[in-house]
Design brief:
The chain has 229 residues and is mainly alpha-helical. The protein contains 8 helices and 5 strands, in the order H-H-E-H-E-E-H-E-H-H-H-H-E.
């Protein structure tokens, strides 16, 4: 499948507070606090007098390099470990650019960013035949609708969801509820399209736990951008 729909989403239930925004707000409220146990100042106080604090950062992607930069600015000795022979993790998506701290970071570091292309989905069936644009849009729309439902369900029921219940199980259940409206061949095709989600996360949806699916949440607002880090 070529093309890509917007991954960012808004929860259907107005009483649900985005986990990612809860975390960001909590971080911002304590990041400047001298009593934050994770601040460099507090860490230095826990070190024996006369010894310098040393930190090892694993991974030279955008997160690891930014972490190393901040620690270095605080006067902390940092060693960055990277398995490959270069820094950066290649092009990445920035989902939701309105008040997104990652985009602010990209601008600060003069990283190259560009608008994400908005292309209609190109979907082929098992026989290699290209579906019509109408059929492709329908299958793609159903997939992203189920993805949105999975985010919301995982957020609300994460505590009670069995760890072994996969995202693929959720897809099958949702399509089961729609079987009266969709022929079996269409359901099978949509399941195949759903597997393309694994291309975005780098793993099989049969192995991705529904319990922790809310961790894949993205920030809403504005058009997605690509960043070359």
């Amino acid at each position: 499948m070529e093309g890509r729909a917007n991954c960012s989403h808004s929860y259907k239930s107005p009483d649900l507070i985005s986990r990612i925004h809860q975390d960001l707000n909590g971080y911002r409220s304590k990041r400047d606090s001298s009593t934050d146990p994770e601040s460099p100042e507090m860490l230095r106080r826990m070190m024996p007098q006369g010894r310098r604090l040393r930190v090892c950062v694993v991974g030279a992607g955008v997160a690891g390099m930014r972490c190393a930069q901040i620690l270095g600015e605080k006067g902390i000795d940092v060693t960055v470990l990277e398995a490959r022979d270069r820094t950066g993790s290649g092009p990445n998506w920035i989902h939701g650019v309105n008040q997104n701290p990652i985009l602010d970071l990209a601008k600060e570091l003069n990283a190259t960013t560009m608008p994400a292309p908005e292309l209609p989905p190109s979907i082929y069936d098992q026989s290699g035949h290209l579906l019509s644009q109408e059929e492709g849009q329908k299958c793609s729309g159903l997939m992203w609708g189920i993805i949105e439902d999975a985010f919301e369900y995982s957020l609300k029921h994460s505590v009670s969801i069995p760890q072994e219940q996969s995202l693929f199980d959720f897809f099958k259940l949702k399509l089961k509820l729609k079987e009266k409206d969709l022929p079996e061949s269409t359901q099978e095709l949509i399941l195949q399209v759903c597997r393309s989600w694994g291309d975005y996360i780098g793993g099989s949806i049969e192995k991705q736990s529904l319990k922790y699916f809310w961790l894949e949440e993205t920030i809403d607002g504005g058009k997605d951008r690509l960043i070359d880090n």
